Amino acid sequence: MSPNVHYRACNLCEAICGLEIKYLDNEVISIAGDKNDPFSRGHICPKAVALKDIYEDPDRLKFPMKRTADGWQQISWQEAFDEVATRLKAIQQTHGHHAVAMYAGNPSVHNSGTYLTGTGLMRALKTKNIFSATSADQLPHHFAAWAMFGHPFMLPIPDIDRTDYWLIMGANPIASNGSLMTAPDVANRLKAIQERGGKVVVIDPRFTETAAKADAHHFIRPGTDVFLLLAMLQVVFEEKLDKVPAYVTGLEELKSIVSDFKPERVAEKTGIAANTIRQIVHDFTAASAAVAYGRIGLSTQAFGGACQWLVNAFNVITANIDKPGGAMFTQPALDILATAKVPYDKYNRYQSRVRGLPEFMGELPVSALAEEILTDGDDQIKALITSCGNPILSTPNGRQLDAAFEKLDFMVSIDIYLNETTRHAHLILPPATGLEVAHYDLTFNTLAIRNVTRFSEPLFQKAENAKYDWEILQELTARLSQNYDPNSAIVPQDPHQKVAMAVSAGPYKMDWEQLRQQQHGIDLGPLRPCLPQRLLTNNKKICLSPQQLSSDMPRIQNLIKATHADSQFNLLLINRRHLRDNNSWMHNSERLIKGRNRFTLLMHPDDAIARNINIDERVRVRSRVGELNVFVELSEKVMRGVVSLPHGYGHNRAGIKLRIAQAHAGESANDLTDDSVLDELTGNAVFGGVPVTVESV
Q1: Cα–Cα distance between 682 and 152 in angstroms, integer?
Q2: How far apart are CA 280 and CA 68, in angstroms?
Q3: What is the pLDDT of residues 60-113, one digit of tens each?
Q4: Which distant-in-sequence residues (6+ apart) come within 8 Å of 558 by Cβ?
Q5: In whole angstroms, how far apart are CA 272 and each of 105, 172, 232, 239, 350?
Q6: Amino acid 337: pLDDT
């Protein structure tokens, strides 16, 4: 019997590659790239085949589970919903609305059902204690976009298909498949830049997979990118290489801010020679089209917000904003900015209870989650909802978060696995997932290097009595709402009906049924110039020196003047990602995790010699908050003074049910990262440049 064929987009990472899935009955025979997808052009990465593994995983939960004294027990949906609503309402009646918190993990935006209905539950809770993976990742991008362009989702995207010079800072798109830059098949797109005579330059503390394909790579000391960017801007202005659009404000202020940061002043701090800095600027400004791109390595450091501001400013003043080959803005079929409120005001409307950290986009920094649970007092968090997230492994100081979750009166997790976080829950509500759900990429179409659109139909029906994520979230939302009537049946509504209306009313006036029939997706063309009309600032101008960002300059000045070095924690820890990794959520797939041990501490040979450490030796890594024992791997692909651990491991905690992941457990790098250290400007967590010491065990 010949297999059937199904086409859909992969939603495991940001690249949204088109898939051709062959299947018989309820069995996946093969997963390959869809050669007729106009965006991904047949490309897929190894993660795509793991959709089969997730669907077939015997460890995947399919029905509600309750933690009891005798272990986990399956219960009915009715019983689960009743208990969640009863327990949460009781806690809020006793301790107030803010006593219940919610955390949304990274996969929330990879599943349109969760994305479209999760905010409804957050509103029903009426709590200020909303947290997400955003403040452990890309929050500085949103902060800079809001301050400069008028809205957190007014994010400039590198037009790499038409650029002639791509400057990559703190990013490894060949391993990540692009991030805040939806770009399938980055390797071949990078190669195309070189084949048309262009150049790719990488600046990173590690010689990454992307650096290996680039024309040049320069090591930089972790946490000092802000000084490099200030010096690059100083060179542009000093040598009169600027070509600034008419629709800007704050130009003179920016010139003044950067005037003291000559390349010679920052060379020692950054580890990049002054003449190298000038050469980068000269080559960038000489290119017919160029774009600077700074990603998670810039965002997750102490000056993440300032870095993203200065990357944007560098693109603007070199006339590489809103032009083909530069940094451009998308115009997706479903435009989430179409009804944006101007001016955007979701900043610092309230603060966290313990440290007084400001709210942004309706969330508080996730680095504050543990202390808000552990610190007694009014509005202390007593209960927590987690939605498809694993903050124990993905946010700072995971061991402290372990202790905090143990103190909760009640915890419920919407998740398909019994993992490091959900093991603390009293109830786990697992949704249908992956190949069982429909999906429309609201987020990643908005971040794509081309305007594209696609609706993915479910391949398989969900199991009998299983529930979609949006059914679970809508049920909880209704039960926790003030006007809930227990005598009325709750009838969840497929949220993709809203997508259909938005696409039909959007800029392309697309017929929803026709879109659904286009199983390979639709290419809507390259990114198009749209400024200043698309700007969401009051005056329709780019603010080059926004007060929210420039206020961080005294802190930056203090750091560049500092000479003290920590004699105890004298190495700087950074993390790294592998193509077959995706945070912590893909480690229960044998085909993705197999092979040589990826969980090693990369260390430069000279640093090892200085500490009498030998190759493949087991070493102890200590930071202010914790310590790990790991095997060391000596390599000149990491800068001297820098060590690197992969992110997302640590499957060695008791009480989880991830058999394959447990066999490749590794350790959690976030047992070393410090929740007390963050980007003071934005509240984003700091994962890069963590001071550590390494010694032989």
Answers
A1: 12
A2: 61
A3: 999 999 999 999 999 999 999 999 999 999 999 999 999 999 999 998 999 999
A4: none
A5: 36, 19, 12, 20, 41
A6: 94
Q: Which helix (H) or strand (E) holds 634?
A: strand 627-634
In 271-303, alpha helices (H)? 274-286, 296-299
Q: Which amino acid is at 381?
A: I
Q: How far apart are CA 64 and CA 75, in angstroms?
A: 6
Strand partners, 351: 358
For residue 95, what are its two tokens? 């301790």
Beta bridge mates, 127: none
Percentage helix, strand, coil, to 5, in the chain? 35, 20, 45
| DSSP-assigned beta bridge partners for residue 123 | none
- Answer whether 149's CB lies under 8 Å from 157's CB: no
Task: Determine the 3-state secondary structure of 60 from DSSP.
Answer: coil
> What confidence tens digit (pLDDT) does each residue in 273-309 have?
999 999 999 999 999 999 999 999 999 999 999 999 9
676 to 296, 304, 395, 684: CA distances (angstroms): 19, 16, 12, 11
Residue 3 has pLDDT above 90, yes or no: yes
Query: Percent of the chain at pLDDT above 70?
Result: 99
DSSP 497-525: HHHHHHHHHSTT---HHHHHH-TT-EEEE
Task: Collapse the DSSP code of 496 into the 3-class scheme (helix H, G, I; strand E, B; otherwise coil) and give the result.
Answer: helix
Reported as a single tens digit per residue, the pLDDT across 645-684 is: 999 999 999 999 999 999 999 999 999 999 999 999 999 9
How would you class 514 by CB atoms within 10 Å of its CB: exposed for 0-12, middle for 13-18, buried for 19 or more? Answer: exposed
Cα-Cα-Cα-Cα dihedral sign, residues 379, 383, 389, 391: positive
Cα–Cα distances in Å, from 651 out to 164, 413, 623, 625?
A: 43, 18, 20, 19
Q: Report residue 228 as tokens.
A: 């490099």
Tokens, residue 640: 């001297």
Query: Distance from first CA to last CA of the chain, Å, rounded?
Result: 58
The tokens of 292 are what? Answer: 């600077």
Residue 259 has pLDDT above 70, yes or no: yes
Q: Which residues pair with 691 in a beta bridge?
A: 572
Q: Report how many helices (DSSP H) and strands (DSSP E) the chain contains, helices first.
A: 25, 30
Q: Specify the 3-state DSSP secondary structure of 317.
A: helix
Instruction: Report the distance separating Cα 257 and Cα 240, nearest Å.
Output: 16
pLDDT digits (tens, 9 = 90+) for 415-466: 999 999 999 999 999 999 999 999 999 999 999 999 999 999 999 999 999 9
Residue 554 has pLDDT above 90, yes or no: yes
User: In sequence order, what DSSP letters do the residues of 542-556 get, joined into one string?
Assistant: EESS-HHHHTTHHHH
* Token duo for residue 655: 């009480």
Residues 492 and 150: their CA atoms lie apart, in Å, by 35
Average pLDDT of the chain to the nearest whole number: 96
Quickly count: other Cβ atoms within 10 Å of residue 191's Cβ: 13
DSSP state of 309: H
Domains of the chain: 4-56 (2.20.25.90), 65-137+339-523 (3.40.50.740), 156-328 (3.40.228.10), 564-696 (2.40.40.20)
Q: Is 14 exposed, middle or buried (0-12, 13-18, 19+ CB in 10 A)?
A: buried
For residue 404, give both structure tokens.
């905090």
SS3 295: coil
